[in-house]
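Q: Predict the assembly, please.
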Amino acid sequence: MQRRRPTIIDVARKAGVSKSTAGRALSGASNVTDEARERVLDAARAVGYERNDLAVGMRSGRTGLLGLVIPDITNPFWAEVARGAQDRAAENGMSLLVFSSDWDHSREASHLRALRQARVDGAIINPVADNFDDLDRFGLPFVLIGSSAERFPAASSVGSDIAQAVRIGMDHLVSKGHHAPALILGPKSRIARARFLRTFHEHCVERDIDPAVLPMEDGEYTVEGGHAAMKRLLARERTGHLAVFAANDLMALGAMVAVREAGLRCPEDVSILGFDGVPAGAFSWPGLTTVAKPGREIGMRAVDCLFDEIAGRPEHGRVFMPCRLIERGSLADLSLHQPKLTAGAGRG
Amino acid sequence: MQRRRPTIIDVARKAGVSKSTAGRALSGASNVTDEARERVLDAARAVGYERNDLAVGMRSGRTGLLGLVIPDITNPFWAEVARGAQDRAAENGMSLLVFSSDWDHSREASHLRALRQARVDGAIINPVADNFDDLDRFGLPFVLIGSSAERFPAASSVGSDIAQAVRIGMDHLVSKGHHAPALILGPKSRIARARFLRTFHEHCVERDIDPAVLPMEDGEYTVEGGHAAMKRLLARERTGHLAVFAANDLMALGAMVAVREAGLRCPEDVSILGFDGVPAGAFSWPGLTTVAKPGREIGMRAVDCLFDEIAGRPEHGRVFMPCRLIERGSLADLSLHQPKLTAGAGRG
DNA sequence: TAAAGGCGTGGTAACGTTCCCACGAAATCA
DNA sequence: TGATTTCGTGGGAACGTTACCACGCCTTTA
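A: Predicted assembly structure:
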């Protein structure tokens, strides 16, 4: 039933040229007469020729395939990254093989093997492995993405600019009159936490705020983690309005629930600032003001860097993508209604 | 720097057998002595051999690649579908090429071409094209997913069971004492709307409810669409508690905002039931009770069907996947506090 | 005018695997 | 014991493309 698919030889025969000439015409090489090229292109259209990428990859070594290994395509942030990578790849006529590793070492290893066997031209990887061995042995051009990539300074990588994110978050808090925000941070084991905290401290010092006196709670990067952290925060002795900078949107949303359960209102009694930019933040009540990571841009930029790696001009540096503030309704504006607070006014 | 990758010939040489025997041993064929197989496998490990999928595809016609064309990987539902497809594909040693069509006809066409050129073994497609021509000419095994696939009854397809979804939604509404819910539906042009409405009517008739008297509003499948529809619904004259069955979670979330803006409370004054199961529904206040589509299962099942198509035993039927109720807090329980309402009590 | 160079073209090899066929040895049957 | 089948093995072709080389024609240069 299914007829054999036309090859370049069929096209050449129909055009009355050799397959060499047909190949040159179809691949857009220069050393073909316009007349021959046109005959070949017409013949290709006539027989319905479509290039066989496998054969091309076989012979030339370039498959037109890129790999993407992320923790979970279901996570909105990683979906954005995937979308950006996919769009930029398509712009350059390449296709994307997508894998989810679930933060699992052995799954990651098997995905990397699949990418090698598929002979992809390169891969974009959010590494879950603690050691660099798997990546060292990967044997293909690659670019790392995400904050865990910071552990591998030898590789080219793209991530969000946490320093800048903390700065615009702090700027916004201060502009709304919150001079001494509490913090809800992720687990101590995560590398992003240290960077977040360090930058936060720097900005406190710049503003003559003593970071040591600010309330701080840890939790998992989940709704439940943020919920529990906020409960602990509210249990502390304090006076006046409480402002919280959460290191993750899900935690911020969990914190919001805890505020409501405590009989308090957001933003009237408690202001909350998130970090990530997940879509769910737009549907909470109030909407979550947050510092959004540029997931899509990270994906696009990673592909650009990967093309550099493939072309053999590796940058081998980390690219930091700027974050931006999304203002919704979870921050009260204290700057309008009352005199500027002193640095210590908000603490318990 | 990069050494040539070992081929099956290197393995054969090291094992002291022909490449035919090496190939048989590596592909798990039966007609090889255990001794030869072991020697080949040892040699493969020793030289670090990894099969070249391109060459396999070239010769055997099977590439181990599957295609997935969905509207937008950034949409949580489609991300779930992609994840399910990806997991089931990986279980069978296959990789997934993912494309987003953005509901655009020409993008879809170009993605389908890319899949053909990559010689994928088959594809899972949510068709955006109004006509069947592109798919007819696709030339590879495929399975359709999503409700728009219903327009192509000749093809194998997988979707959610809207009839069953409406039934469990209605059962839940009735069990909570809401005997005459209002409806917020999608645009009249969408095929899913007609199916939803038809099933809804059937269930009303079964319960001796006259569907013609129930309030009904249309809108786009967006937060804004639901918001506007709810405003129109609230503007109608009515008495007592209002229950709303929205055909889409985003619309339900928009409706929830409209309720709040009208100075009413959910679920005390207005009960809302959604349909989709988007993650954001877990973070709204109150949490959105909804009928969740089994995105992941749809993806997995679509891969199963695709394997059937590839194997040449096409089912050419539509598979309906059951939905399930996720109970959060957006429905009031009227059955406990007041006598059972009559069918007409909730309408305006 | 002859030599040298550029350009378009065609033939052939190569990429790495699987499929097909043929061969010899061992096992089975008459 | 001789004929037949089964089994493991090896050799070669094939998949469709691009890379490479050689050839002949035309133009340019000494």
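The first helix of chain B runs from residue 8 to 15. Chain B touches chain A through 50 residues (CB under 8 Å).
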